[in-house]
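Tokens for chain A. Residues wanted.
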């Protein structure tokens, strides 16, 4: 499986995995030490997932644009697998906390926010490239955790603040699903756009 090792190394997946896991561990530890709460709320889940997704954003594109678009490699399957495995890597450490005194919960919010933010990142990668794909998830998350976008009964607010809505909020879940599917399809089919030659040329 030499090609797999080379792929993971070229995309810096190991670094992204380390950052994602360390972020979840740090948030869990801070809540364990400094809070009496047994559950990390939706805002804490959203921020943790956003940081993990931002770490994996850089792995969505390679250094060689020509290679990433060559027809001799089945890139759509690899891109889809990359996104699905990234989602699993982000969710796994959050799920492990369910056996401890402090946990990321509820599970539905963890899965909804991971799917939605990763889909938004993948859509950003397909439109703007991997280097800028983190902008939309970061902006949306930081806006959502502000006090004026808390839980709401208004569908428009539920969509705008889908990251911080309680589990079972239909509008928030549906919107996250749309982001997830749209991002998955766009990135799987098109990948990242080709960059100008000046951005990929080696330094002299």
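Reply:
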């Amino acid at each position: 499986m030499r090609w797999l090792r080379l792929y993971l190394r070229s995309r810096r997946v190991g670094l992204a995995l380390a950052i994602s896991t360390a972020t979840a561990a740090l948030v869990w530890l801070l809540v364990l030490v400094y809070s009496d709460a047994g559950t990390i709320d939706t805002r804490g889940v959203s921020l943790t997932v956003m940081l993990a997704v931002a770490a994996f954003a850089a792995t969505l594109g390679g250094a060689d644009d020509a290679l990433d678009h060559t027809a001799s490699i089945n890139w759509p399957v690899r891109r889809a697998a990359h996104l699905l495995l990234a989602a699993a890597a982000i969710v796994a450490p959050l799920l492990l906390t369910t056996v401890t005194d402090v946990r990321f919960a509820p599970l539905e919010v963890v899965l909804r926010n991971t799917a939605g933010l990763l889909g938004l990142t993948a859509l950003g990668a397909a439109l703007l490239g991997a280097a800028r794909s983190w902008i939309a998830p970061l902006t949306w998350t930081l806006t959502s955790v502000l006090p004026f976008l808390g839980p709401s009964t208004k569908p428009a607010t539920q969509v705008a603040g889908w990251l911080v809505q309680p589990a079972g909020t239909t509008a928030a879940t549906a919107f996250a699903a749309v982001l997830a599917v749209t991002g998955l399809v766009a990135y799987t089919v098109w990948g990242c756009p080709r960059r100008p030659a000046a951005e990929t040329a080696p330094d002299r």
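The first strand starts at residue 39 and ends at 40. The chain has a mean pLDDT of 88.
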